[in-house]
Design a protein that fits this description.
The structure is a single chain. The protein is α/β, with parallel strands linked by helices and about 300 residues long. The protein is built from eleven helices and twelve strands. The chain folds into three domains: about 90 residues, Arc Repressor Mutant, subunit A, CATH 1.10.10; about 100 residues, Periplasmic binding protein-like II (D-Maltodextrin-Binding Protein, domain 2, 3-Layer(aba) Sandwich); about 100 residues, D-Maltodextrin-Binding Protein, domain 2 (3-Layer(aba) Sandwich), CATH 3.40.190. Strands 3, 4, 5, 6, 7, 10, 11 and 12 form an eight-stranded mixed beta sheet that branches. It has a two-stranded antiparallel sheet with strand order 1-2. The C terminus is likely disordered.
């Protein structure tokens, strides 16, 4: 049925269904579309034949949509919105208008599906120009507050009254070890089991600082063999067997597996954290930024419902 509908369904028929829903009258719906009532009636009959189900039903006060008709109307509204967006994008391109978004993110956020989400967004909004900046967590906040970034991804600990935030992702820190490491076979670990390990610490990052602070609460100064400025270099050093490191579990899972390493979740309460989409509270957001936030936050909501 899908292929037949694709070939036979017209935009005018969808507009007719929406008009019937609006007016409850085939005559008024036909007038809205500047077409004859007989032609409108044939369109509905053709649609019902294509679907194999009745779309409208006559009532004492006119006509209304059946459950099948309401399904068609829901899709018609979405298609109409897409066409309006298409028209707007074409107009913007024709006059050379492009909206720019400066998006600042910490490196681990790029290891999950954020690049794919942004690709999807840019395909839907081709008139938008996106500049993605990879920064340290605190630098993301500074960029938002200083006006160098329009949108950022931040940790809960970096939320300030000057920032407006939306939930983006929940994750948990894990250690990353060489497959030959004794902890590689463990399903999970606690920090108390890691205090005597040799570490490759991410340099000047929130997660590295959190790890050091939690160890200090236990009276331990972690043995650090290397400090790395990027997750990629940390993983390279871990692969050599020189130590273990710490990274977000879900966000980094694909990258860790690709390098033949093993991630083991840290089960301590402090190891769970939230990532937030952030904008400057006083900023007037462009329509492109609003659309980007809506897409990223709605996909996060859907992901949580599936869990």
């Amino acid at each position: 049925m899908g292929a037949k509908l694709y070939d036979r369904l017209s935009l005018k028929t969808l507009k007719l269904v929406l008009a019937i829903e609006k007016f409850g009258s085939l005559t008024q719906a036909a007038e809205e579309l500047h077409t004859a009532v007989s032609a409108a009636s044939r369109r509905i009959q053709f649609l019902e034949s294509s679907l194999g189900h009745q779309v409208i039903i006559r009532t004492g006060r006119g006509i209304s949509l059946t459950p099948f008709g309401r399904v068609v109307a829901n899709y018609a509204r979405r298609i109409a919105a897409d066409i309006e967006q298409l028209e707007a994008n074409v107009r913007d391109l024709a006059v050379g208008n492009t909206e720019k978004i400066r998006f600042a993110v910490p490196a681990p956020a790029l290891y999950h599906d954020l690049p794919e989400q942004l690709d999807k967004f840019l395909r839907n909004y081709p008139s938008v120009s996106l500049l993605l900046k990879e920064l340290k967590s605190q630098d993301v906040v500074d960029g938002l507050l200083g006006g160098q970034a329009d949108v950022g991804i931040i940790l809960s600990s970096h939320i300030t009254p000057s920032l407006e935030v939306l939930p983006y992702r929940r994750d948990r820190l894990s250690i990353v070890v060489n497959p030959s490491h004794p902890l590689a076979s463990q399903p999970s670990v606690k920090l108390d089991e890691l205090l005597e390990e040799t570490w490759v610490l991410p340099h000047e990052t929130a997660m590295g600082q959190t790890l050091v602070q939690e160890a200090a609460k236990r009276g331990v100064d972690l043995l650090t063999r290397a400090q790395s400025r990027s997750p990629a270099s940390s993983l390279r050093i871990v692969h050599s067997g020189l130590g273990i490191t710490i990274l977000p579990h879900e966000s980094s899972a694909a990258e860790i597996a690709m390098r033949g390493l093993v991630a083991v979740s840290i089960t301590d309460d402090w190891a769970q954290f939230d990532l937030w989409l952030a904008t400057l509270r006083s900023a007037k957001l462009s329509s492109a930024v609003v659309a980007l936030l809506a897409m990223l936050s709605s996909e996060q909501s859907e992901a949580l419902q599936e869990q």
